[in-house]
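Fold this sequence, please.
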Amino acid sequence: MQFADVIGHTELKTRLLTTASEGRVSHAQLFLGPEGSGALPMALAYAQYLVCSQPSAFDSCGTCSSCVKSAKLVHPDISYSFPVAPKEKLSQPKSVDFITQFRLAVQQQPYLNYHDWVQALEIENKQGLINIHEARNIIQRLSLKSVEGSFRVILLWYPEKMNVEAANCLLKILEEPEEKTVFLLVAENDESIPLTILSRTQLVKVNRLSDTDMFNGLSRLTDIDPKVARSVALRANGNYRLALHLLEEEDPDADDALLFLEWMRACLKLNVVKLQQMSEQMAAIGRERQKAFFEFSLSIVRECLMINYGDERLVRIEGKDKDNFIRFAPFIQQRNAEAFIRELNNAHYHVERNANFKILFMDLSFRIFHLLNAK
């Protein structure tokens, strides 16, 4: 993958290119970014640049033997480590046992998350881990000389899933690797990474995508209506993975803004019949779409706070929807905004873990009734 293939993050790309061209490549870097921000694609592009035999000031060449192999995730000097779990006759699983599945999953969708990976491995009922066997295998791989004489790169995806034994095993080599050996850790949540590992890495922050970068990224896709692309970009809130899921499930007649306002009116009046109808309707749209709706609802709370207390120029809603939410905004105040956010986040969390949506939605609606009518 080249930097040109990574959506947005122009400033970060420039910084990474500069450090590489000036020979200031840190031996252990943590690419930290929320889901869908592009932390993994950015690390893949950086790894390819480091081993490219003809790099320019702006990107890897994309055509040399090293780039061709890097793009296919088969370069001998780039190793990949990621969460795995015991399966069939593999009682001590390592990343090399699942490298074919990893290559296929990443090439199909480089913005994938942990849930996508677990599904690709077909281990939904198990916990994927980076274990002691994987750590020892990493050390073994690094004991071999570079095949092509360039950097040796270990790209470690989801270090949050590393257990204590593995972390302790990797400490020394992570702190004092051989010359021209680079660890690229790619994570979403630094709070879950073992502190001993975290303290030995240099942070590379990958922020959420801007609305403009998201729109431009979606516009690269074929046969997409610019109006749909703009709507999805706003609803995805910087998460390109979510944006792609929204496009897959996009219903021309669906309107999250109207659905949200309809829901709030039913909650405000505690219209139980209407809420039951809505719970039936939303239970049928699928988990990804349900999560997207709650994420959209969270973004609306932010917009309402901006309308009430911030600068209206920072409001991201446009047109008729903006007028509707200006009228709704007085119901979101300092007294209830924090609780609103907490309840929506909890709902999102439980949807992700396969809660009964109808029960979840009705319980959440009753809680919102109290928040909307709080004095």
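Strands lie at 28-32, 78-81, 152-157, 181-187, 202-205. The longest strand covers residues 181-187.
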